[in-house]
Amino acid sequence: MGVKSKAAAAILILLLFLGSLWLQGGLDYHWDSCLKGYNQVNKLHQLSNSSGANGAEVSQILEGCPGQTFQVSLLLSHLLAAPAYTSDVLLQPYLSSWDELVKFMEALGPMVGLISKEIESKTTIIRQLALSAEENPEAELGSNVHSINSVSTEADTKNSVEASQHTSAYHSVRSMIGVELDRGVVDFHHQTDSGCRTLLRLHRALLWLKLFLEKLAETPVASRLRSPSDLCREAYQSTLANHHTWFVRRAAELAFIALPERGFFFRLVCVQNQEELSAVLNTVVHVIGEVYNRTQKALEENGMLDLP
Q1: DSSP assignment, residue 226?
Q2: Phi and psi dihedrals of 233, rounded to 5?
Q3: Hey, what's the signal peptide range on this chain (predicted)?
Q4: pTM for the full predicted model
Q5: CA–CA separation, 270 vs 40, rounded Å?
Q6: Region 108-123 average pLDDT
């Protein structure tokens, strides 16, 4: 076997290893173009720059992108459905958002697709816990239903009561946290497959993708657009890299080298240029930010930002 063949084999092994380690322990344990008409994108751009614009309006304008598995309009719909009441996040649309983000990552090529497989394993864990809770309703909220939203203000009382009437153990982020703490399944010192620990790993990954999309939406500096590979690596270094071992960080950088060029992202969301891409991605980033901030607050209030 020649030197080049050995090097290629070594890189493949590293990337396969990355796929299994990506979310372990803190994400560390264990093209045909479908261009849309200018009217649609111009409306989107106007809304994204309008002080009265909101994600729902933009989501209505965005249409399906023929020939693409990933659909930015579906991602927005799920993200918009996730925030609940004043400070909670519904888990079903949250996990559905991840389903679409997994498709986004898989579209970027097999190297990043390996990472998405580990993320899928995390969403599966939470879904299985939710299914188990539904099959055993006697083990759900019980007498502790009112403690789930205990951090809410008095102004939230009406919404909290409404929430408790149809809340199951894994209905939302706060209901899951409350129930798992009550059951004692959250270990603050050892690794477990609790929903809270699993959510934390997804939460960290969401920040990485949010920052990557935010950077991808930036206007060019000195008329020069930076490569998606560089932007993704920067987003990773300021987020997930803080929770990864040296080996996983090196393997991650190998995966990012294989990212497509910027033109691919135009086709992926059915736009024609950077201005239109920015209008779409800025909206996505804004809505992701709302979901991320709510989840961050819930985890922080319960001391869960550093679960092993």
Answers
A1: P
A2: -65, -40
A3: 1-23
A4: 0.76
A5: 11
A6: 85
